[in-house]
Automatic annotation (TrEMBL):
GO molecular function: uroporphyrinogen-III synthase activity
Gene Ontology annotations of biological process type: protoporphyrinogen IX biosynthetic process; uroporphyrinogen III biosynthetic process
Similarity comment: Belongs to the uroporphyrinogen-III synthase family.
EC number, as in UniProt: 4.2.1.75
Top EC group: lyase
Positions of the Tetrapyrrole biosynthesis uroporphyrinogen III synthase domain: 28-247
InterPro entries listed in its UniProt record: 4pyrrol_syn_uPrphyn_synt_sf (IPR036108), 4pyrrol_synth_uPrphyn_synth (IPR003754), UROS/Hem4 (IPR039793)
Key words, A-Z: Lyase, Porphyrin biosynthesis
Pfam families to which the protein is assigned, alphabetical: HEM4
Listed PANTHER family: UROPORPHYRINOGEN-III SYNTHASE, CHLOROPLASTIC
Superkingdom classification of source: Bacteria
Organism whose genome encodes this protein: Deinococcus wulumuqiensis
Protein name per its UniProtKB record: Uroporphyrinogen-III synthase
Reactions catalysed, as given in the entry: hydroxymethylbilane = uroporphyrinogen III + H2O
Length: 255
């Protein structure tokens, strides 16, 4: 009996999410390898602490009037956990936590935090539309400096006051020449954020035209950012999750 041919066998897929340097693409890399892919880990962004820890501490220490604290990425959840550990006990009692999706909720729960709400779809749009807040209540969004305005717009349209506090920063990573050469030959590139799409486009040069790479985007917002940047082939995940991103990568290499 012939051996099973896996969907991504013979293809190299680039993982652009930040990598801890130990597992070659993290959980997404694992899922891609299970489908037969060779995984190229080329982080396009990196996360660093907020530049003003005192402002962050003051913002988290005075939550009077805040009904909801919103976390919209696993990185945000990890940053909040680290902030609470470094700054000591903070008055979060009486404030409800909302996570954009189950991956973010798992990070928060692992840190011992209760998650009161997760929307039906892991997007800022769904969180803004479905958050069980009343008009006049205040929602505090803990995020990076590059957060999009989708969540703000949806909440404000419902009469919910929106506040934002910089919990961490998203910065571009630097690729070396070997990474650039390897990226030029991949079957697909996975993108999990508009920030990653922008950094991928910024790699354009004589040795690389990123717009010609097949892109697998985790959701419509990321896909829209990629299309606006001129990417020719963009496949959207059927649902905004790592598993959905793998499905998009399979579809992308077949296109």
């Amino acid at each position: 009996m012939a051996a099973e041919v896996l969907p991504l066998q013979g293809h190299t897929v680039a993982v652009t999410r930040p990598d801890n340097g130990e597992d070659g693409g993290g959980r997404l890399g694992e899922l891609l390898r299970l489908q037969g892919a060779e995984v190229l880990s080329v982080p396009l962004i990196r996360f660093v602490p907020a530049p003003d820890p005192q402002a962050l501490r003051e913002g988290l220490s005075d939550l009077r009037g805040v009904a909801w604290v919103l976390i919209t990425s696993p990185q945000g959840a990890a940053a909040l956990s680290g902030t609470l550990e470094s700054l000591g006990p903070l008055p979060l009692s009486g404030v409800r936590l909302a996570a954009v999706g189950e991956a973010t909720a798992r990070e928060l729960r692992a840190a011992g935090l209760d998650v009161a709400f997760v929307p039906s779809t892991a997007t800022a749009l769904a969180l803004g539309r479905e958050l069980p807040a009343r008009p006049g209540q205040v929602a505090l969004h803990l995020t990076s400096q590059l957060s999009e305005n989708t969540l703000r717009g949806e909440l404000q349209a419902r009469g919910i006051a929106y506040r934002r506090l910089e919990l961490y920063r998203t910065e571009p990573a630097v690729l070396n020449a070997a990474q650039r050469r390897s990226l030029a030959g991949v079957g697909a590139v996975t993108l999990a954020s508009g920030s990653a799409a922008r950094e991928l486009a910024a790699l354009a040069g004589p040795d690389l035209d990123p717009r010609r790479l097949r892109v697998a985007a985790i959701g419509e917002q990321t896909a829209a950012a990629a299309r606006a940047l001129g990417f020719f082939s963009v496949t959207v995940a059927p649902h905004p999750s790592l598993e959905g991103l793998v499905a998009a990568a399979i579809k992308a290499v077949r296109s």
